[in-house]
Amino acid sequence: MKVAILISGSGSNMVALAQSMTGDHPARPCLVLANDPDASGLAKARAMGIPTAAIDHRPFKGDRAAFETALLEPLLAAKPDFVALAGFMRVLTAGFVRQFEGRMLNIHPSLLPRYKGLNTHARAIAAGDAEAGCTVHEVTAALDDGPILGQARVPILPNDTPDSLAARVLPMEHRLYPLVLRRVATGERGPVSLP
């Protein structure tokens, strides 16, 4: 099974996914694709021997359809069986998502269905929640709204800031996403949970 990974920045979840796809893992990374040519994750992917491509979203000036048409060129050329969004910070249209229906995953830094969108850690702290975490879900046309395939939880501590909470959630993302990808690659679709 070939997996294309879409990123926007440092690619820490991409690295965790790529490092997990070795040995007896049924999947292999076939492309790391970024919407920013300066994303530092591209260099990390190249260092790991993974083909890379970048389609800068900025010249498209809000024309999402044109951007996605350009994005599809290297993506379809790589012939992925699955697409993993790993810190890809662009909202994808329903038309784009439909092409990979049932074959696109995302990791989101909250316990969905709570706190879709941005600033998830600040929102969880402001709400007085006892815990936060991350969710891997199937991507659908609705933002952060597809079937949940896995969640990992961390407690929110009394003196937590959004940054300190994010620093504790990120290692859980790096554990959860590879676990869910392996399960999906072997045909398991039921949700999994990490404490």
Question: Could you characterize the architecture of this molecule?
Answer:
By secondary structure, the chain is α/β, with parallel strands linked by helices. The chain has one domain: Formyl transferase, N-terminal domain (Rossmann fold, 3-Layer(aba) Sandwich). 34% of the residues lie in helices and 23% in strands. It has an eight-stranded mixed beta sheet, with helices on both faces. α1 links the parallel β1 and β2. The radius of gyration is 16 Å and the shape is globular.
Name of the CATH first level: Alpha Beta
CATH superfamily: Formyl transferase, N-terminal domain
In the predicted model, the low-confidence regions spanning at least 5 consecutive residues are none
| Secondary structural class | alpha/beta
How much helicity do the residues have? 25-40%
**Domain module count:** 1
CATH topology: Rossmann fold
Strand order of the largest sheet: 3-2-1-4-5-6-7-8
Could you spell the SSE succession in H and E letters? EHEHEHEHEHEEHE
Name given to the CATH architecture: 3-Layer(aba) Sandwich
Report the C-alpha radius of gyration, rounded: 16 Å
Overall geometry: globular
Give the biggest sheet.
Answer: 8 strands, mixed
Amino-to-carboxy terminus distance: 29 Å
Key structural traits:
23% strand; 34% helix; single chain; 6 helices; globular; 8-stranded mixed sheet; Rossmann fold; alpha/beta
Write the layout of secondary structure elements.
Layout: E1 2-7, H1 12-20, E2 28-34, H2 40-47, E3 52-54, H3 64-77, E4 82-85, H4 94-98, E5 104-108, H5 120-126, E6 131-138, E7 148-155, H6 162-185, E8 192-194
